[in-house]
Amino acid sequence: MVRKSDESDISDEDEDDEDDNIELLLAEEFAEEEEELEEEDEDEHDATDRLQTEIGEKFEADEEKIESVKENLKEILIPFIGVNGARKPHIVHYKLYNKVKPMVENRLSLFEKCYPISTALARKMANVSYKKLSSFGLWDVVELSEGSAIQPVQDLHKRIYSVLHRKYIYFFSNKQTRDKFIANPFKYLSQSKPKPVVPFKIAVLGPPKSGKSTVARRLANEYGLQRISAGEAVRTVLVTQKKTFLALQINKHLKKGLTVPDELVVQCIEVLLMDILCNTRGYVYNIPQFKC
Q1: Are 141 and 203 a contacting pair, CB within 8 Å?
Q2: Is the pLDDT of residue 98 over 60?
Q3: Average pLDDT of 77-93?
Q4: Closest CA to 253 of 273, 267, 270
Q5: Which stretches does UniProt call biased (Acidic residues) (predicted)?
């Protein structure tokens, strides 16, 4: 009797162990799904903050990508145009048109690069043959293309703007013409080279006290011309040619308290016209009122 009960107990234990093993295998094979926690309802303020954060992060990521693209475009000399697309469509179209228009007009020079440099550096580069002066010399190529026939003034006291394009140096009389050249250099380089300049001969006429001297002085300063007037011609002869017959005749009349005759004044003007500046650049003549 004892043996039978022991055997039955052992068989029951084996069955229990087998059931436990089966349950473990089933648990491993088919894991019980965890109960999902119920999400709390998100209020409007939290939702707004979350959306703003997500949009901000996405905007920063996109902005970094755009900056990377802009740098790559800059390296290969491709211009970048930025327009605010959040505005009204007609405003966006207008802004885009204004930015694209110069590029279309200057498309021949789209990939050209010009470098504004100081005049001192430009002269130094030319002196050491690091860069070359263009075939236009000191001419302002923009003013030349617009019909200017005045030879450029080589005055150290007058500011000159310089630009380096490829291996050549160009000079400009003002900032506006320099900027025009930088925007489209090929537009101005395609013109014919300047021809030798004939000296200018400008006469300023008018009644007394009408501003003839002021106009003549401004023209002379602007274009580097010699200013000639009757009084200036007489003074020049008296100072530089004291012992000449002409100077003695003038002094003779002045010592007597008389005015200088028109014939002597004309001779003084002829002497002044022999100056090298008059024969190379030209002159502005302030015509006096001679007696008839």
Answers
A1: no
A2: yes
A3: 82
A4: 267
A5: 8-22, 29-46
CB of 144 within 8 A of CB of 192?
A: no
Please say whether the beta carbons of 183 and 102 come within 8 A: yes
- What average pLDDT score do residues 29-55 get? 70
Residues in the chain: 292
The pLDDT score that the predictor gives to residue 288 is 66
DSSP secondary structure string for all residues of the chain: -HHHHHHHHHHHHHHHHHHHHHHHHHHHHSPPPPPPPPPPPPPHHHHHHHHHHHHHHHHHHHHHHHHHHHHHHHHTT-------TTS-HHHHHHHHHHHHHHHHHTGGGTT--EEEE-HHHHHHHHHTTSSEE-TTTT--HHHHHTT--PPPP--TTS--EEEEETTEEEEESSHHHHHHHHH-HHHHHTSPPPPPPPPEEEEE--STTSSHHHHHHHHHHHHTPEEEEHHHHHHHHHHH-TTSHHHHHHHHHHHTTPPPPHHHHHHHHHHHTTSHHHHHTEEEEE------
Instruction: Describe the strand order of the beta sheet including 168-172 as a list of residue ranges.
Output: 114-117, 161-165, 168-172, 132-133
Distance, in Å, from the CA atom of 267 to the CA atom of 202, rounded to the nearest integer, reads 19
CA-CA distance, 286 to 217, in Å (whole number)? Answer: 9
Domains and CATH numbers, the chain: 114-190 (no CATH), 200-286 (3.40.50.300)
Contact status, residue 233 vs residue 271, Cβ threshold 8 Å: yes
Tell me, what amino acid is at 77? Answer: L
